[in-house]
Amino acid sequence: VTPLNRQIVWLLVSATLFAGVGFQIPAIKQQRERDRLVVTGNVADNAPPLIAFTQLALGSFRGLVSEVLFLRAMRLKQMNRVFDAKQLSDLIGQLNPRYAAVWAFNSWNMAYNISVTMSSGPERWRWVDNGIRLLRDQAIPLNPDSTELYKSLAWTYFHKIGQWSDHEHWYHKYRLAVEVERVIGPDSSKETVQRLVEAPTSLEKFLEDSERKEIHDEFLERGIKDARTYCLLVEADYRGKGGISPGVFDKASPFAEDQQTIGQKVITPHMFNDVQFGLLQYEPDDERRRLQLKDLDSFWRAQRLRDVLKLDPKFMLKLMDELGPLDWRTAEASAIYWSAFGMSKARGTLDTHELNTDRIVYQSITNLVRQGKLEWNPGSGQLYMKPDLRFIESLVKHHEMLIEKYTGEKVKKDDPYYYSFDRTGPYGMGYRNFLEEAVKLCYQYNDLGRANRFYRKLRDIFPQKRYDVSLEKFAQAEIKALAFRLSQRDAVAQILSFLGQGWYYMSMSDLDKADGFRKFAKFTYQFYQTSTRGQEQGDRMALPPWEKLQHDSLRDTVFAWARQGENDPKWLRLIAVLKAEFGDPKQVDEIIREFQEQTGKSAAQKQAAYAIPPVGTSE
Amino acid sequence: MLNLLFLVTAVALAKRFWWGNISGGVASITFVVLVLAIGSLPFIMTGDGTLRGRLQTFISYSTMVTGFLLSIMTLILSASTLASEIKNRQIWSVVVKPIPRWQVIAGKLFGVATLNAVFLVVAGLAIYLLTLSISRGEEDSDEDRRAVNDRVLVARQSILPEFPDVDDRVEAHMKKMEEADELPERQEFQDRTRVLTKFRMQQGQWTTRPGGSVHWIVGGAGDIPKIDGKYRFTIRFKCVPTPVPPSEKVLAVWRVGPPHQGLPAGEFSKEVSVNTVHEMEIETTERPFDDRGRLGVNFINGIGNGCGVQFPLNGGIEILYPRGTFGGNLARAMVQVWVRTFLFACMGLAAATFLSFPVSILLCSTVLMIGLITPFLQEGISIMFGLPGAELGQSGWQGRIFGAILRFVLDWLIPNIGRHSPVNDLIDGRFIDWTFVGEAIWELGAPGALLIIIGMVVFRSRELARIVVT
Fold first, then answer.
1. Is the pTM value of this prediction over 0.90?
2. For residue A398, what is the enclosing H or E element?
3. Which residue of A74, A75, A119 to mutate against B (max B Cβ within 10 Å)?
């Protein structure tokens, strides 16, 4: 055999083998797709240039590189070296851009595992924020239909920030509120969000209007060139004035000093000059200027909302229409947004990720009812998460929707047996438990009208012997039982509600009843503080000092009444009784002074400080 | 005279090598890639969001990229220069001259080594200047700035406390076990029991109950410098609590001073998260060590912590004090990288004396890749085959023999390149001691020298041309 013939034979053998392999490829490809071993679509489609380049340049070797980077990340973590963790998470994600589990794992690793190795709140927050940004800013834009990513992001908001497991959870709550308030401003009411929805989505559209162009050019000329600088200017303006609302920029915030050291940049009034601050000012009767400023403010804030927080104002408004006045500074609002947004992208297969995402929507609304009001009391500097009863109706509707969705039947209002465990399973039980809780909460907060309404509903659809008593007896029995299994937030809610009712009866000169509620509040406080929770878990789960709780409750009650008018009889009676009966004029005078200071602000600021719930969500 | 002649020959051959390769492409391409890579890293690397993180990420990646690129370049150049000359018969024009063949190899080695040295000087300067430039950037907080100055842009000497001497107690314990007939029969298990007992007793000495304390004496502290009237050093520590407190934090109270003199030259406290490494800066006007240069360190575990605290024997506590500058540290790190490239130059040249270019480059690059991940492979093989010392894993006797052979190859025939990486010390601001550099020279340079001698012997007896009579 000549060398040439030998070569031809080998060539033929090679060609035959290649052809044989080629015929197998479609079957292998099908099997890979069937076993979900491949991502659908081209990984480089619509990807940013860096990712597209990585995909094309490394080809199949990106798997190997990704493994090496993973090993490096794990090794560095074992050595307590986390300086590189964010960078490595970014790189690993960019090498596997369509692999949702990779993004979710790295985000969780940063937000949970790495953050708790840090000692201080700001250090921990950096890693929680890194975890959030990885999903929100990188993973989700690349995988907009991945429910797993929405679930992971929503869970980080809901659990890591919104719940109590992290020792620095208060700091996380505070920082999230700061981030959101920096973008939306101190007032995140529905009207504000509506304005953001109506704002043009591009600079070209915004400048089509000559009025808008004029003010935009004026800002531009004075060095305020973009949305970011504008928001910094407004924040610096707040600081220069010492804060305007009980919001996060208030000087009385327990983290106020920390504001000077957190973040990429320390924001101080010195960053801008008087001419620039002057841009925000206008004469009270200059309506044209006011509207111009309002338009520019909405345009730039909407832009920041989309670019920084990645929130769509239209979807925010939709959620507010459905659920109520969401306070976008709370972790629950963000959790609801991302889980609901994720569910809007879901394919309806109700797989594990979809179910868990849907659960976060439900759990977050429940949390809003239990602790949806984020407040720090300027009087005492104490941070609170207080129950927000405005969301009870939304949660009732949500329960009914869930029953319909997961049991496959329409809710039957006239058929009590529809809610039996056989037919509605745990969903019906959950609904019943929530209605009981709603009755108790409304009763505790002296919202007797709604308490009665929910109690009637409870009796109608879950007919049971123990509901055959009056509302008062039912509620009091439940409250006593509850005292034995209180969580921190429940304890605060209960104590504040008892104290609130105490002030109410005091204003009605029913001092016996008032004293009874105050004693009950004190009993609950002492019971909790001496319980296992209050004792063993240190400051994390302990209640604020009794005097502060009492003071804040009094202040809140007075302010709530004062919203109805400064000469409200209840408010005046309370002052009279307090001064006469308790001989504590100093405390009362202090609250009066504080109230007068707050009401002395401009009307707009007052509106922001004491936002009235939208119609239909409060009684 | 002979030395001078050798030097002249080596320089002449190195010069020939230099011109051949600089104009040839590999070296110039590597140079361009190296400069571009280091120059672009500050813009790509963001770290963890802090200035310290950015700096550490830059230093880490730029040093790694430099080492990796130069290693690859060295392998290609050293393997190709000889192999291609043999293949293209250019070697004939050299070997016909009155130069011993070993000098041909030595000249090429000299050429590669000097080329690497020049590249490392350029890379080192670039890394140094860019590090300084990044460090002038905006810090996240005052704490961040302090961390940059005191923990990264510095060279700190590390000193460790001695392990407690518990040998007598261990022997007493073993004797007691023997008398109680509790000692295992097999010697192997007896040895293991002794080791575990010693570990437990030593660890016990570094453990404290709530309200108790741990005391260490750290030798070699006499060089702790006095800066602006204050002795400055750092305690690097890791607290492992039992049980873990709900806050996952403990209040660490430290007292320092000369041992056996009642302490303290100073007392410092800080609330720290558990199970992670922390650094506490100590500044005191009182001299904290005695005349023998011994520093006393005392940890007080307040009752308020509500948990026992343990300091792991490995990495539980360390004392660091300023000894040199970042620039000096970086220079020593570059020497370490150079030693590594020297090994690859020797390896590539030795392989090319008897293998063709593709085969020698395949062999050398395989060794490079395995050498970079040797510790990981050693651990993996030990676990997979259940070798002695591995905490996990088991296999039959055949597996153990196979695993032992693999471990032997890894331990003795593949250089552990990863162990001699200066990156971790650089980013932690630890002083890279000349003894550490010396170790690298011994463990990487000596095998390299051996390889090149073998290569010279092989090349000397290699038939480069044959007279064929037809």
1. no
2. helix A392-407
3. A119
